[in-house]
Amino acid sequence: MKYKICENYIEIQGKEDFSAKDILECGQIFAFNKTEKGYVVYSLDKKAEIEENEGGFRIITKDTKYFENFFDLKTDYSLIKKQLHKFEILKKPINFGKGIRILKQDLFETLISFIISANNNIKRIQLILSRLREKLGENMGDYFAFPTQEKLLSVDEKFFKDIGAGYRASYLYKVVRQVDREKLESWRNLPSKELRNNLIALSGVGPKVADCILLFGYGKKDVFPVDTWIHQMYNKFYTPLENREKIRENLVKEFGELSGYAQQYLFFSMREKES
DNA sequence: TTCCAGGTGCATA
DNA sequence: TATGCACATGGA
User: Fold this and answer.
1) Same domain, A195 and A252
2) Whole-prediction pTM
3) pLDDT by residue (tens digit) across A211-243?
4) Domain of residue A237, residue span
């Protein structure tokens, strides 16, 4: 995919391997809004607006370098999709979400976001996270930044309840005291298994949330987060199983280093077809 | 009213 | 090690 970085925007040429809708609505990120012109997406204290035009898309932002990495623009998705096409089960989902790209999100923001995501629906996850930004994040003018850890440490458990986190409030209160961004960053070089175990040891993080952090934060592609949708998908197309750990093992075995990509195409098509 | 959502923690055997 | 249940909240 060709793209050009200018001073205040990135020009994406072509629509084959980039779609704002597919990227943002495939469930990997919750901090975005639909606008009249397209979408606006938030990451940490930064923002990017995405507009579609005849030849492709324009990502309007002050932080072009940050979002070049965030949208993983250097990776050739046509190549990935070509490899995935050999799996019969993926042919329709790839066509359905052909503009998906896996984002490279901040580790700490991903951790907090996916703890909130557990046993929750996407609408409500977005609502809780937008309240978190509004109440604790720095005012950036027309939006609020993701809160700093210092701010998150300054509130009690009741605060998290009041923004609607429900029983996840205690997980959030604890986890900001267990780990910080520096520690999460320092785990990047660990072997996958050890890294995953470290994540699961954190409050509110189980196998599924750990896999999401590995995929959307650490960029690991040999993981396959199994949630209720993937569980449904599995029991529809494979020999039905109740044990999610076993399902995860089987899917990682099948898709190997491409598991993370396969998961996103399958998740997106399962979810969209329900609505 | 009941069921469900990008599940996890904890008690029990 | 494995199973079962409680857990907030809001939309369908």
Assistant:
1) no
2) 0.97
3) 999 999 999 999 999 999 999 999 999 999 999
4) 228-274
Dihedral angle over CA of A121, A69, A257, A261, nearest 10: 40
Cα–Cα distance between A3 and A65 in angstroms, integer?
12
Q: Are residues A255 and A194 in the same domain?
A: no
Residue range A88-97: average pLDDT?
Answer: 97
Are residues A206 and A122 part of one domain?
yes
Distance CA A217, CA A109 (A): 9
User: Among A100, A118, A123, which residue's Cα sits nearest to residue A212?
Assistant: A118
Report which residue is nearest nucleotide C3 when distances run from CA to C1': A243
For residue A123, give the CATH number of its domain: 1.10.340.30
Question: Which residue minimizes Cα–C1' distance to B9?
Answer: A204
Q: Tally the domains of chain A.
A: 3
Position A272 scores a pLDDT of: 87
Angstrom distance, A17 CA to B3 C1':
38
| Positions of chain B reached by protein Cβ under 7 A | 4-9
Same domain, A34 and A127: no
User: Which nucleotide is closest to the Cα of A121 by its C1'?
Assistant: B5
Q: For residue range A28-54, what is the model confidence (pLDDT) as tens digits?
A: 999 999 999 999 999 999 999 999 999
Q: How far apart are CA A134 and CA A164, in angstroms?
A: 13
Q: CA quadruple A253, A256, A260, A263: dihedral positive or negative?
A: negative
Pair (A259, A203) in one structural domain? no
Query: Could you tell me the distance in Å between the CA of residue A166 and the C1' of nucleotide C7?
Result: 8
